[in-house]
Amino acid sequence: MKTQLFQDFDAVSSKQWKQQIQFELKGADYNDTLIWESLEGIKVKPFYHSDEEIKNHPTNSNATEFKILQNIYVHDVQMSNKKAKESLQRGAESVRFTIESDKIDLSKLMNNLPVESVVYYFFLPFLSQEYVAILNNFAAKNGYNFIIQIDAIGQLCRDGNWYENLNSDIQKLNEISKNTTIPFLTIQSGIYQNSGANMVQQLAYTLAHCNEYFNRISKINQPISIEVSVGTNYFFEIAKIRALRLLFNTLAIEYNYNFDCHIVATPTKRNKTIYDYNVNMLRTTTECMSAILGGANAVSNLAYDAIYHKDNEFGDRISRNQLLILKEESYFDKVNNPSDGAYYIESLTEQLAEKALEVFKEIEANGGFITQLIEGTIQRKISESALKEQGLFDSGKEILLGTNKYPNPNDKMKHDLELFPFVKTKDRKTLIVPIIEKRLAEKVEQERLAQESN
């Protein structure tokens, strides 16, 4: 017997729900008690209802196709080749090589690596038309699926200087675009999140960053990849990635650009800690979940010890297994666009996109992204946002378990640090003030390390 369950109950409007909630509050103010405001100025309600005319924003992303991405820094070519093979055998589905020199022998690096069903990313922290041509020709000749990641504006943001200078860098990118058939351009937007920008700023700066390329490269005939850092605000981060795709496609229409963006997501470093470091695994798990549900094409997890240990097999294996569990045991790859139509997420997506578009228009009205970087406006606004968040952390309103809440006083880390986990500064001449990535827990950790020495 088939029961029409919902026909047995009268529909309840959002107004009726609110009246009942107000009654249950016994005189407390609804807005003050149950509505909270995020750092981005978005008011979050206790419930969302279909009669509120919430717009749907289909993402057309495919969660069933998200790839587990393994990062490999290429120092020793043979060791990197071996690590790539082992990673692919143990669950990785894509590999990203960071190549710091144009002297790396590509044929040795790719020796006997599988061709079918694997995407190979090449992040190049240098700008070389010749090396891009080598990558392009190798992919065409051998049937590999390559994505090159070059970001001259990202270089300016991180380093404070261009590779050479504005005109030369843009000219080289134009030449690469004309002579390359595989994707070569990326937007390294993770730096905005890791330096303390709020989500609206992250989206607006990413869009303005991309717009500079659309304006300055005469014809982009390949998909653009966007690198995103994902924080721990679960639903907001899902909405952020959805809003990014929505904003990118809105901008692309203006340039008759017919490719969707290719989003690569990585957990943020901003909330990671050296003390009680196993909590980092919990943080990265929810951050990877947000990335998948938001529609990222590839997810590269951050090892729990990445901020203080050199690359190691154990950390890589754990971070890869987190994604394998999400895919193979939690079934995060079984439904496409899983967040589409969820009233709360749709509402957040729209608000983030609208607020980011306002900031983007303001940037363009004041000379564009590069001009605002040179003037220091972008850096100042990120710094203001970062200080606001840092204040919340310092006062205990933003909590990192094991660090500013329930710290373990017996936890010692001084002799376990293989990498310097704090901001590094050095005096040198730069065109702009670089955007500096900084973790929230750095001051607390430095104080604890100093106490260990006593």
Blueprint of the fold:
Elements: H1 14-24, H2 30-34, E1 36-37, E2 43-44, E3 67-74, H3 77-89, E4 94-99, H4 106-109, E5 119-123, H5 129-142, E6 145-149, H6 152-159, H7 166-179, E7 186-188, H8 190-194, H9 199-216, E8 225-230, H10 234-254, E9 262-267, H11 279-294, E10 298-299, H12 313-329, H13 343-365, H14 369-375, H15 377-394, H16 442-453
Parallel strand pairs: 3-4, 3-10, 4-5, 5-6, 7-8, 8-9, 9-10
Antiparallel strand pairs: 1-2
Helix pairs in contact: 9-10, 9-13, 10-11, 10-13, 11-12
**Can you identify the CATH superfamily of one domain?**
Methylmalonyl-CoA mutase
Count the E strands.
Answer: 10
Which structural category do the helix and sheet elements fall into?
alpha/beta
Distance between the termini: 75 Å
The residue-averaged pLDDT reads 95
Give the CATH class of one domain.
Alpha Beta
Radius of gyration: 23 Å
Number of helices: 16
CATH topology (fold) name of one domain: TIM Barrel
Shape: globular
- SSE ordering: HHEEEHEHEHEHHEHHEHEHEHHHHH
Q: Low-confidence spans: pLDDT under 50, at least 5 residues?
A: none
Strand order of the largest sheet: 6-5-4-3-10-9-8-7
Relative helix content: 40-55%
Which architecture name of one domain does CATH use?
Alpha-Beta Barrel
Largest sheet: 8 strands, parallel
Q: Beta-strand level of the residues, as a percent range?
A: 5-15%
